[in-house]
Amino acid sequence: MARTRIPTPHGPAFLHLYHNNRDSKEHMAIVVDPAQFQGPPNPDSPPHIRSKTLDAVWSDNETEMDRITRGAYVGRLSADSQHASNPIHAHTHWTGINDLIPSPLIRIHSECFTGETVGSMRCDCGEQLDEAIRLISQPIPVPSQSPLDPPKEIPGRGAVVYMRQEGRGIGLLSKIRAYNLQDLGHDTVTANLMLGHQADERGYEIAVAILRDLGLGSKDELGEGVRVLTNNPDKVKALEDEGLRVVERVPMIPRSWRSRNAMLAVPALPADRQSPKDDRIPGATLIGGNAVYGEDLDKYLRTKVLRMGHMLPLWLEDPEQ
Predict the structure, then answer these.
(1) Quick check: is 200 catalytic?
(2) Listed GO molecular functions (predicted)?
(3) Residue 143: C-alpha distances to residues 43, 98, 100, 152 (Å)
(4) What is the average pLDDT score of the chain?
(5) Diameter of the chain by CA atoms?
(6) pLDDT tens-digit profile of 214-227?
(7) Which pLDDT score, from 0 to 100, does residue 199 have?
(8) Catalytic: 298?
């Protein structure tokens, strides 16, 4: 329905808002592809990540300004530069595929009001959203194909599909009630079941449709597979069952687990966030926040590993190992 540029602490991104015919929610895609500001891709560069439906002509009466206003433009908008996209040329297959360039990095991320907005440290959802955008935004090194050519870098590229599936699909009301059951001693899975829900009620049909619209991961046409940021093998299988071509699963290790030893020595902030001028308390509420940690988070992550099969190294909990 619409697309716009958003600056983030990790670099520029494009926010896409989608409507669909499966539910009444507005899902989103955060596309990282700063190469789009540099003009059309050359034959040796990956294609731009663009929405086919957004670039399409919606009606015979649509003006160029209508298209630009909803985000169907190329390059970067300014008072002196406005160029509506051409549906015929906006999407081309990448015929000069370079095997040295990895597939786009993507994440399917479920909305979490408590972790992303309020800063609850019962989960690491806010941190995961920030980390996903950070990792996707990292420059991609491309080895040289000849000893005479120096190695180069291309801008990071990929997408976070932001799904409105609070509490693994059970909704905010049930999620809050589940928190009370957790305080009574139940884990997240048992709490969901006690409320009459499944352990995980999320679906991925809409998410895969969004990725297809962006030209990512399609099995039935020439295009790129995707690398998926997740610790959940069931999510990878569900995405593949929906027709997404996944070429690699990329793990997401919680920041607090990666720096556990340093955190024990300096409990105020993780070591990689220490700064004499940084007086923020721990927590990842907004993009660019700190690491989340604590007893509630450890219980949450252990349940993911032990009851839901997430692939996280529990040995990192013990700093002596």
Answers:
(1) yes
(2) GTP binding; GTP cyclohydrolase II activity
(3) 17, 11, 7, 7
(4) 82
(5) 68
(6) 999 876 555 578 99
(7) 84
(8) no
Which class for 146: exposed (0-12), middle (13-18), buried (19 or more C-beta within 10 A)? exposed
Domain ranges of the chain: 2-50+91-165+202-317
User: Which one of 55, 130, 187, 200 is the catalytic residue?
Assistant: 200
The answer to whether 303 and 312 are in contact (CB under 8 A) is: no
110 to 71, 95, 132: CA distances (angstroms): 24, 34, 12
Torsions phi, psi of 252, nearest 5? -125, 95
Partners of residue 31 on adjacent β-strands: 14, 159
d(CA 299, CA 293): 11
pLDDT of residue 274: 42
**What's the CATH code, domain 2-50+91-165+202-317?**
3.40.50.10990
Whole-angstrom Cα distance, residue 46 to residue 35?
9
Nearest to 163 by CA among 204, 131, 127: 204
Q: Which of 76, 164, 202, 302 is catalytic?
A: 202
Nearest to 30 by CA among 141, 129, 115, 103: 129
Whole-prediction pTM: 0.82
264-315 confidence digits (pLDDT tens): 333 344 444 444 444 455 555 566 666 666 777 777 677 777 766 676 766 4
